[in-house]
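hey
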């Protein structure tokens, strides 16, 4: 597996990965986190220009994620709980795999941690596979955060995790 910046030519493949991820989430008891159309194409196009990455195998896109170093997520300022530290951090968002190759999530989490030793990430409380992956990789549950305006079937509440080390 390899990781590289997302390019405009990857748009269709990225959309397909997200479609597969939404179906998997619905099948595993998490139908509301991304619903039927999140992430929106405008957001994906923005990710491509900013901090989007793809995981490839044999030149095929099998995973996608956003990784932003030196981030500041305003929504993370109001946590019902406590972060492990207040040091500068990176964030991971919109991570997904098409499910064709076991270990894709592990691969990109390792890649991110190699670049920054203080990472924050959040997911839906019903996203058991993601929570298990995070905990397996040393991410500690820190509390709950809430995104505004997530839609009628999603109250925006997310469980937040952090991993830090030197």
């Amino acid at each position: 597996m390899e990781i590289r910046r997302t390019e405009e030519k990857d748009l269709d493949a990225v959309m397909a990965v997200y479609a597969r991820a939404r179906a998997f989430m619905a099948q595993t008891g998490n139908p509301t986190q991304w619903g039927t159309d999140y992430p929106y194409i405008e957001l994906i196009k923005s990710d491509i220009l900013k901090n989007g990455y793809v995981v490839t195998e044999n030149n095929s896109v099998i995973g996608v994620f956003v990784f932003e170093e030196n981030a500041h997520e305003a929504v993370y300022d109001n946590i019902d709980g406590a972060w492990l530290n207040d040091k500068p951090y990176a964030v991971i968002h919109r991570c997904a795999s098409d499910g064709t190759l076991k270990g894709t999530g592990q691969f990109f989490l390792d890649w991110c941690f190699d670049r920054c030793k203080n990472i924050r990430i959040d997911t839906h409380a019903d996203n058991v596979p993601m929570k298990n992956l995070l905990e397996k990789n040393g991410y500690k549950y820190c509390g709950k955060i809430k995104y505004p305006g997530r839609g009628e079937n999603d109250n925006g509440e997310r469980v937040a995790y952090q991993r830090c080390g030197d």
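Residues 11-27 form the longest helix (17 residues). The first strand starts at residue 2 and ends at 5.
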